TrEMBL record:
This is CPBP family intramembrane glutamic endopeptidase. InterPro entries: Rce1/LyrA-like_dom. Keywords: Hydrolase, Membrane, Transmembrane, Transmembrane helix. Residues 147-245 form the CAAX prenyl protease 2/Lysostaphin resistance protein A-like domain. It comes from Promicromonospora kroppenstedtii. Its EC number is 3.4.-.-. It comes from the Bacteria.
Length: 265
């Protein structure tokens, strides 16, 4: 016999959302806000500053590998937390969020489509941001070339996709819907949250990620893209992972003169 727990009170729902965000993307957003203020007041133009992704954490290769894996693993703990919280009523949370493998080919197809729709304009927007001086130079990976470098970058890309899409879209939608928010209010909140924790890369990436947030959250809530009436978060996870794989690994395949023109090292 399944015991169904009563729904959370409004006050407890709001408190839960703030706690979850404080442990995950909201915390990153606050740090990114402080970071962009520091950058803007540093006396050096944004275009001459650098943001490093996937930095090395030790000069010793295998210790660096351990640190990288620990960072990825602990970054996914908030995902486990929200899945646990959402499953409190006894339902299958992976099914309700669309994290199950019931529609693999459809999810994969939409994932690639979303990645293309965001990635190609995103690269052009990044170049524009660099040209007008509102985006810092992004170093996609500062890891040395070891046998484990590419696998770790792939895991990092997947971790980013799972963390951001499950919390900023899936979890936030479930809880804000319980608070009586309409679709537009959710899309705005989710998109601004997504943009906030990318502020450390400059104003351009903030705007670009807000646009990405609008597309992703609108897709997730659109009845047109809900087979069987169920939301599907997996296409967003796939799309986000693909975008980060290209950013973390694929950039190395781009000719050096192109990377230099785009401000990518």
């Amino acid at each position: 016999m399944t015991v169904t727990e009563p729904p959370l009170s409004r006050r407890r729902t709001i408190a839960e959302v703030w706690i979850v965000l404080g442990l995950s993307l909201g915390q990153s957003g606050v740090y990114a806000l402080v970071n962009i203020v520091a950058r803007l007041t540093a006396g050096t133009p944004l275009a001459e500053q650098t943001a490093t992704l996937n930095a090395s954490q030790s000069e010793r290769p295998y210790l660096d590998l351990v640190y990288q894996l620990l960072s990825i693993g602990f970054a996914l703990v908030p995902v486990a937390l929200v899945l646990y919280l959402l499953s409190a009523n006894g339902r299958s949370v992976t099914r309700s969020l669309g994290l199950d493998g019931s529609r693999p080919w459809r999810d994969l197809g939409w994932g690639f489509a979303l990645a293309a729709a965001i990635g190609i304009p995103g690269l052009a927007f990044y170049a524009l941001g660099r040209a007008v001086g509102i985006t810092v130079e992004v170093q996609a990976s500062a890891l040395d070339a070891y046998w484990w470098t590419v696998p770790v970058l792939l895991l990092s890309a997947f971790q980013n996709g799972l963390l951001e899409e499950v919390i900023a879209v899936g979890y936030l939608y479930e809880r804000t819907r319980e608070l009586g928010w309409n679709r537009v209010k959710f899309v705005v909140a989710s998109s601004l949250l997504r943009g906030s924790y990318h502020l450390y890369q400059g104003i351009g990436p903030f705007i670009g990620n807000v646009v990405m947030g609008v597309v992703f959250s609108w897709f997730y809530t659109s009845p047109r893209f809900r087979p069987g009436g169920r939301h599907r978060i997996l296409p967003l996870v796939i799309a986000h992972t693909l975008l980060d794989v290209v950013a973390f690994v694929g950039y190395a395949l781009v000719p050096a003169e192109w990377r230099e023109a785009l401000g990518i090292r």
